[in-house]
Design brief:
102 residues, mainly alpha, 4 helices, 0% strand
Length: 102
Amino acid sequence: MLRPELPPLPALTRAEADLVDGYLRVVDLVGRINPSRGDLTYSSLRAAQALVAQAIAVKDALALMHERGEDALHAATLARALRVLDGERRALRVTIPADPAP
């Protein structure tokens, strides 16, 4: 079965790419921690432990951008990159699921 071709990623600086990648890893981890979606405390604990390192990676990417004089986040470009990398679906695990119909 052929998969649809994804649009290309927009051009990003290395720090912007690190920011996007780190942000998505944080989203994935928070989704695994989400008590409304999980079922095992151990997997949530492991995700919470990993979250610390990923938060540092995001901070480091932002600090590097700031040090290089990148004062603005190009939100539209970064959002496009997040969409290409399936960020919308990944972020859904962070939300609280709707109540099942009675």
